[in-house]
Amino acid sequence: MKKYILLALFMCRCVLVLGVEPPKKSTDANIFGHVVDRDTHEHIPYATIAVTGTAFGTTTDASGHYFLKNLPEGALTLEVRALGYASQTQQVTLRRGQTAELNFEVVQSGISMDEVVVSASRSARLRREAPALVSVLDAGLFEKTNASCLAQGLSFQPGVRVEDDCQNCGFTQVRINGLDGHYSQILVDSHPVFSALTGVYGLEQIPANMIERVEVLRGGGSALFGSSAIGGTINVITKEPSRNSAQMSHTLTSIGGSNSYDNNTMLNASLVTESGRAGLCVFGQSRHRSGYDHDGDGFTEVPVINSQSVGMRSFFRTGAYSRITAQYHHINEFRRGGDMLDRPPHEAQVAEQIDHSIDGGSLSFDISSPDRRNRFNTYVSFQNTARKSYYGSKQDPDAYGTTHDLTVAAGMQYIHEFRKLLFMPSELTFGTEYSYDDLGDRSVGYDIHTDQTVHIVGAYLQNEWKTRKWSLLVGGRLDKHNLVDHVIFSPRVNVRFNPSEAVNLRVSYAGGYRAPQAFDEDMHIAIVGGERVRIQLADDLKEERSHSVSLSADLYHTFGKVQTNLLVEGFYTILDDVFALRDMDDAADGGKVKERYNGSGATVRGFNVEGRAAFTRWFELQAGVTLQQSRYREPEYWSEDAEVPPVRRMFRTPDAYGYFTASFKPVRNFTADLSGTCTGSMLVQHMAGSGVGQDVAVSTPSFFDMNIRLSYDVRIYKEITMQLYGGVQNLFNAYQKDFDKGVDRDSGYIYGPSLPRSWFVGAKFSF
Questions:
Q1: pLDDT in tens, 229-241
Q2: In this structure, what DSSP letter does residue 640 have?
Q3: Who contacts 648 (Cβ-Cβ below 8 Å, separation ≥6)?
Q4: Contact (CB, 8 A) for 279 and 327
Q5: DSSP notation for 344-371
Q6: List of domains in the chain
Q7: Are 748 and 740 contacting, i.e. CB atoms less than 8 angstroms apart?
Q8: Mind listing the pLDDT tens digit for each residue in 321-352?
Q9: What is this structure's pTM?
Q10: Across-strand partners of 573?
Q11: Exposed (0-12), middle (13-18) or buried (19+): which is 214, by Cβ within 10 Å?
Q12: Within 10 A of 140 (CB to CB), how many other CB atoms are there?
């Protein structure tokens, strides 16, 4: 393994050295100007100014002015972007020693049509011109919903739902279009370093203040990103330095109105050199959440969390058309659920205790030709996780374990634009990728060892014929997985038709696969009826395959002064050799064992509808709903009890669910944000224990989880602002009412919102 890592680092180093341009004589070609609101003529602070096709860029200062110096000579295109405004471009021609003035008057736009996304084709594209439909969650949404981590903000997109799957430790997973967590691939800055181990609790370990935006690509993504992207991809884009600034905040939440509190402190700072050649953005979070016992049985429904995280992202512009980007993060998290939280875990009746230490980062290099017709990217990324755990009950002294996991990914990508290829201009993308995952799991007391080493070598090729009105993308990816005997091919076809800028029509097909390896829930040992339950893989387990088709219409229209957007998307996914679980003979240690095997197959079909409306500057509304069916081809047995009937409906997949957000700003400094999620009835397994005497598939009630957040901004001194805020999460207290109780409870019998009605207050300082 060391030789692969050293080779990847050496290749990256060589490209970096070759890409660094020698010092050149200053061009003294400069541009200055301002950005103002076209209607009010007020200057707009902190708008982003980018020189298209180059590494140059800056932001306006607090007075709305900007200055760019030592730019390349010739024709340049400048693009301005500001929150709440439509993007705008202007062209200018510069000569050596010339200083030009270029001013922008931008138009207010509550709904952006020109968001830039990278997940649709692994290159930056306008969202409305991307070959596949990409949904975007920005940092503002995480603030509006009072989300402290990735898990708490993901549900506010159509077709996406986050659920809590363990009453003891709070294990969460995200479902896209009804497919459970291991069908979706989580990327960090487009890099696949989120392993099976970090997938167990990783959604809560990524702090919200680390995130610039999240791009969600629903449907098969294996043709671009490889294994485990059957349901879609979630691409977490970390914050990048854009100007000199800092933020610090603290939020105090009373869980269930009790004396169990969640204290969350976040810090961000951004520094950019005067020349704009380099920048550094740092973040930090410290969180302490007390355990919460909802039903008074002495066992927690919400686990203790103590976490600290710190990280940074930095860039260095090596030339006019090239740059290096580095990212690093360190996360420490301790969590524990069960009873007797102040005692060692082996003295408790039930304890799930996990202590993580995670280090991860990446280094990438981007370079392009001056005309942007040739672009090259190379990267290497890693994540190392060390975990100490205890999953046990009834004062079991042998339930301690340790796990180590190292994930490394490296790749290169080349893009060439043809002015005409056969019948239309096109963009050819070719890339190679190598990923390595070395997992070692030890249950010391039971002498159980899980060792898994995964090597995946992949290559992808795609060509997109495109104009502003039409695009046709045809491509595929070849993967050689060391746990699969043959090479796996994942095809992709996308067609886009834009009869106007306000109408975007798409149809897509993608094939995908999921390899037979240990997944996130295999690294989580549940406690059911006081016994440990773990998962093993069948000897003849083979990869799971998928075929996904989607059709979508993304429509924009303005009714008077009301801007609207309507998205309708239909999807149909066929799964072959679906992974399923069956009970096996009890293990020698007395615990229960479930085996993962290839089932009959399944189909998932439905549609997403999302609407957005910006009525005025002070009122915006967004809502989405998903209606779907998730069914196995044949009934699947899920219990060892012969009297329990098999089911065709997939567990934990409601046929209807949705979300909404609304923002009111009646006066300049005051904002009221409403948000909520609605989850329809679904089937959940309830295993025999303290709650029921026999395994049963329970049809759960529906839930509506609504939140409210009120905030007021106070200008303290010039560029220093304090925001005071407060609100209620789960306003109507839509919380599960039939939890199992006591030591014999089924910890997996949990559904609905993750918190009862909870009150929060906080303050944020911005510099």
A1: 778 889 999 998 8
A2: S
A3: 631, 632, 633, 634, 635, 636
A4: no
A5: -GGGSSEEEEEEEEEEEEEEEEEEE-TT
A6: 4-106 (2.60.40.1120), 114-766 (2.40.170.20)
A7: no
A8: 899 999 999 999 999 999 999 999 999 999 99
A9: 0.88
A10: 548, 604
A11: buried
A12: 13
